[in-house]
Structures
1.
Amino acid sequence: MNTQGMIGVGYRRKMTNALLDGSDIHPEFVELAPENWIDVGGTWKQRLNRVADKYPILCHGLSLSIGSPDPLDMDFIKKLKAFLDEYQVPLYSEHLSYSKCDNAHLYDLLPIPFRQDAVDHIVERIKIVQDVLERPLVLENVSYYTPVAAEMTEIEFINAIVKESGCQLLLDVNNVYVNSFNHSYDAHEFIDSLPLESVGYMHMAGHRKIRPDLIIDTHGSEIIDPVYDLFDYTVARTNPVPVLLERDFNIPEMAELDRELSRLKAISKSHWHKETVDHGTA
């Protein structure tokens, strides 16, 4: 199932009727967290099946905890593979972070120390997950608010993970903007230093400025113009990939979300459609 260049939205249960009706919002795919749907039956299973009949499904996980010191949860990963296979999910992504320690779920995405021993640990775990799932793992650059015991830069850390594991990168453009603001670096230079040939997916979202020197990644606000501008800069430098509009709470009317989808479509297609046409006529 080819979702390259498509623009989608995160699926929330309250959106089901609007997605099935298709009159107020027009995504080209939907993304869901598999943890929220594995082992679900009854009416909601039927509704998910109807959504999957209409839209390609991509999955973005919450609990793999790839950077955790705890052993991988192999029972969960096997259930995950069955779910991905059942819905023919072409892309499964997760966070380059951890959310579990000493068998306790922390319900947050905690930053991993930018260190070579952390790289080695994560690379080994990525290869195991990819072997079980029989598909590449796509890992997201996360927002963070203080580095922890860093011995290398964030960009060196991300590049090492991707190069040594063979995974793909979920490039969250808003997270780059948030981190560049909070840690005073140039977002464009950061984008240019990433392994852009390994980008397999992108996320776009809103954030909240809580102090003159601090913004928080919230997924609860509309995307601001500087993040759209950074997205335009990024799309011009990458191959066509699926792009997701994230909105986790403060979800507005579907027509308002659709306007954000339309703007993302216009930006992406201004670059990627031309590339497709040029390649097709070469």
2.
Amino acid sequence: MQVKKKEIIKQEKGAVTALVLFTVLIFITILGGSYFVLTSLQKSQLKSDLRIQEIYEQEVYQIDEIYQEVEARLGIPELWKKASDITQWYSYGEAKINEPKLVGNMTPIVYSNEQTGNKWANAITKDGSMFVWIPRYAYKITEGYQKNQAGTIEIKFIDINNNCLDGTNELIEVDPSKITYTTDSSGNQVQDQWLVHPAFTKIAENGGGFSDSQDSNKELSGLWVGKFETTGTVDKVTVKPGEETIVQVTVNEAYQAGKKATFGEKVNLQNHMLKNSEWGAIVYLAHSQYGVNGQEIEAQTVTSSIAGGVTNVETIYEDESYKKHSTTYNAYGVYDLNGGANEYVASYLYNEQSQYLNRYGGEAEGDIFGANVEEQSTSTAYKTIYKDSGSTDNSFTNVEKANYILNSTIKGDAMYETSNNGGYNSTGAWFLSATYFPYITAPFIARGGRYNENSGKSSTFFYNSYYGSKFPEHGFRMCLAI
């Protein structure tokens, strides 16, 4: 009986063991199946995730391609991009300015890489030409008036009603002839009143003449000026860096090219060849705290026929020495104002006896000189006339000086106010640069000084007189008065 009992217990243990093993096998099978199912699901999910990522990356790439195509259609220049945040588009120090005015397909742009300093507003037209905004302002010359040593120009940005945008209540004078000066303890003349820069006014005789293109009763809130000297051809002008500038043109060819330019736009840009007063508007702002703050804009010495001075566009914006060719010492400024080509401006000294005015200024209606005495002797929005003193002095240096004095009421053009006599003087203007006021046999004006100027140092305050004929180093600059 005892033996049977042991056998029964042994059999029961064996049955239990078999049951346990069976249960374990089933559990392992279930686990294995679950693992297989989970692994399959994970693999499927992974494949799904990878496919989603692939589709996403493909779509992002396509979006980038589409964006680049849109940018290309907008003509966005190399190293620039469309301003995505209009509030971060520009900065003129901490000052409030008149909002840059855009028309047609003009697009606000910002530089791709971070830049320090003032950031003047930049925009492109449909063809990719580049322009920089010069906001309406009033100015005072508080040091260096009629000296050849660079002085101080103070700026107040103003609205079209001549209210100061900084909230101060200053009296702003519009008539340059009413400006008075006080002699300080050092014997220097200091400008007493704030003067609206004449280029922004409706008074053609003072260098203005344009009004808001949508309202003839409004004066200009600012000007768009060519970022570089003019490129392209006289039939289709552009303003693009690293390209050959237009040279070897008469002053009238430049004038006509400026008026017929479209820059791919179908709206009225009030485009024109830069006038002498508009040159002054650029360099006064550049000299102020909102530009290089009294420092000298360095001369472009490499070549006279490439916008920006070099064909490598990145060098123009990134090389430290090239940045100093800009009015802001960075990519946001206006270039080629010192050195480069000698830039003809749409301004001349009128003397009906001058053989060069009709020869190179044109005698047809609408030419810079014009078809009759009234047209030839009258300032317009497109050109400024300087008066001839009628001096018969045999020394052309003295004749230049007499004309310089006669035209002393014309302000803001960076001539009379920022030089010491206007006669033939290789060190007569700010930064000891050259001055040659126009006279009967050289009635047209060029600015900036060419890169290989032999008759005196160039600077943004340099001015010279010429026949108006074709020179291999003479170009011009564009302006939009919208």
3.
Amino acid sequence: MHCLRRPTAWIHSTVLAGALLSVAAHGGQALTLDDYYAAALQRSEVIATQSELIRQAEERYQQASAALRPTVDGVASYTWIDSGARDTTANPTRQPHARIAATQPLFRGFRELATIRQTQALVGAQQDDYHNARVQLFKDVVRNFYDVVSIERDLVNLEEQINQNLQREQELQARVRIGRSRVGEVLTVQARISTLRAEIEQLNAQLSVARDVFAFQSGRLATTALRDAEALPNDIDGLDRYLERVAVRPDVKAARARLKATEENITVARGGHLPSLDLNANRYLERTGNLENVDWDVQLALTIPLYAGGSVNSQVREAVSQNTQAELEVSRVQRLADQEIRSLHQTVLLDRKQLQALETAAQAAKKNYETQQRDYKLGLVTNLDVLQALTSYQENLRALDRARYTAKVNFLRLEAATVRYPAIATENVP
């Protein structure tokens, strides 16, 4: 986009001091948006927590897979029996027992397989939650980054306005000395300068808050310099191209993965109606009595559920209800994603139109100010006309800068909402 040229101004003391300290501390390197985001990723407890939740989900998957494998246990006991037993050969009063027992599940009503698929889906959902947390963090970083940059740019603009008004004050004082201007004109300019200085103090308070947020999110010094390296594109893709990305949004993918998990949970619950079949084997290390010389045995055990007080049917109904709830959640998340993308896309288009209008207005205001200055020297307009033209020009420049930063924020939020920003889309789950 075409940018208006303006004279270089002194940066406000707090901004300049912070920038110099940052350059000295970081070897002359200011942080870009990507640098800030990378620092925030390392700093964020939310992202670290999501990483741990992924690990926990993966362990639950391993636990579910273990249900298909055999279990081996060592069993040992020592029993004392009343010596009044009639046959102490078959039932000795001291009965040591030691064996190795193994159990291999053969059929459990397909519950184990369904549980494995369920936990696998939940691992995917947790990974998508991790990516979604990164997206949300990026949005927060974008907002804070441009809050700081915009306020600092506004402070520079205000200092420039003060310098221009100071120059205007000097010119008027010179004219007052030769009787060509009134003292009231000088006082009007001085009042304007005082107003601008008060506005600087207000912005300094806002900058302090924004810088504190930056330090909290990035872990860097609050005075670290920031450098805006982002550029607005010349063209914006159509809405349909952005809406196609709804399906790959991490929040939508997570909701769908959880829907799949609830579907598998129905199979798990219904498996309670089906019989189970297990293969049991024992290797005896020490026995007493009539079976003292029997070293091993193998058992095929079939269990058929007949009645459980209606608990299995209740579990099935609960699982079906959870599945319906998950379907509603998928619908809600998709509609919210669709609405967010539509809203941001419309906002980005309006931002572009606003920038074009403000650029035109700033150019016109500049020409008007230059014209008023020439006419004032010729006595054709009053000092008030010149001040109004100068203020209009300066305010248009400030509005243009603020609108440009706002447009960048909204565009980057749109890119994040459709997972198109490289810093988000290319990262792998740890």
